[in-house]
Amino acid sequence: MKVSFKPVLALALAACCSLAQAADLTVMTSGGFTAAYKRLGPQYAAKSGDTLTTVLGPSMGKAPQAIPNRLARGEHADVVIMVGYALDELIKQGKVDPASRVELADSRIGMVVKQGAPKPAIATAAQFKQTLLAAKSVAYSDSASGVYVENELYKKLGIQPQMAPKSTMVERLPVAEQVAKGEYQIGLQQVAELLPVPGVTFVGKIPEELQSVTRFAAGIPVSAEHPAEARQLLDYLASPGAQADVRASGLDSVPR
């Protein structure tokens, strides 16, 4: 899936930026940062004159849309925005310039139910555990948050045997969309991926002592066609001026 962000109108750009210098940047971004990026991308495009062609895909997993799999197929990107440790793996593989790495935001896991359904109690670990045990079905993503739920969270709560038969890892598709359709009773995913989806009620973040905080980061592939312009975009996304939009999307600013 591709989404293009183009300047809405030609602005009088600063002397350092002329239309002749404008670049067409291809940005691959994963779900957790996408809501913030959809706010910030058009702003940057209007200010810089650059065109941002956006390619969506998870940070990891077997889906062909996953960013590592796209790069492995030779797909072009000037910027990749993804889970930090998945980006680090691409750096180890020599696919992303290590000097380009920029930390962008922290993401926490939340819960949704179908709109109109009773809102369960999850304020404490005991309440959250009971809500999961009482649920008929639970869905989570095939990215960082879902991997944590399946491999660690259930074990921490001591309920893995009870949850395994009624839990589903949803590949690529937004978990909240499946909950809105009535496919699953409860959805767990990063808050920033839950909030934009209609047809669900956001219950809240899971208790802090059970959280897995995912750091989102960005980098520039070694094959980028416009590395200088890509660096300017990353500086903008990480800037103090971008933080209000980052937080409004459900993410937390990275401590600086």
UniProtKB/TrEMBL annotation:
Keyword Signal part of the UniProt annotation: yes
A Pfam entry, by short name: SBP_bac_11
Keyword Signal: yes
Key words of the record: Signal
Superkingdom of the organism of origin: Bacteria
Signal sequence region: 1-22
Name this polypeptide is given: Substrate-binding domain-containing protein
